[in-house]
Amino acid sequence: MDLDKIVVYQAFIDPIYANIVKGILDSCGIECFLSDENMVTLNALYSPAVGGVKLHVFEKDIGQITALLQSQNIVDEPEIPAEKEDNKIFCPVCHSENVGYGGSINRKFNYWHVFISFLLMIYPIAMRKAYHCFDCDHEFKKS
Known about the structure:
By secondary structure, this protein is α+β, with helices and mostly antiparallel strands. It has helices spanning 15-27, 37-42, 47-50, 62-71, 111-120; strands spanning 6-12, 32-35, 53-58, 99-103, 129-133, 139-140.
């Protein structure tokens, strides 16, 4: 008896986006299911640990699914649009363009946040965000 193999078609960071893709496939009659959806929904920080929300499909349907999602421009998750060439950020120290924006590496929390969290006996949630140069490790704010 030849059984069809179930494979992971794609893993999603966002469970809402995974459900949108699953809904599109369900509406077209393609059988699929999601795994690790509850884990990621309850705590988004678990998403990298479990590998995101996984969309499982039959191996025989992969070509049809890819064609369907490409026709609707839903191949990959929506990403933050890349900055235009004229708006590139350069490090003010070494003039490198190998710069990223996110949580500060050198000084994660503001002193005010640490003081308030100490008084309330909670972990400081607010994090200082800055541009970080990966070549010279300089952190700066865009002016």
